[in-house]
Amino acid sequence: MSGFLKADLLDGIPHGFSTSIGLEADDIARGAKLMCPRQIHSATVVIVDEPWPEPPQADALVTARRGIALGIVTADCAPVLLSDAKAGVVGAAHAGWRGAVGGVLEHTVAAMVSLGAHASDIKAAIGPTIAQGSYEVDQGFREQFDNRDAPFFAAGRPGHYQFDLPAYVYQCLSDAGVRDIEDLREDTYAQPHRFFSFRRATHRGEETGGRQLSVIALPV
Question: What CATH number should be reported for the domain holding residue 78?
Answer without folding.
Answer: 3.60.140.10
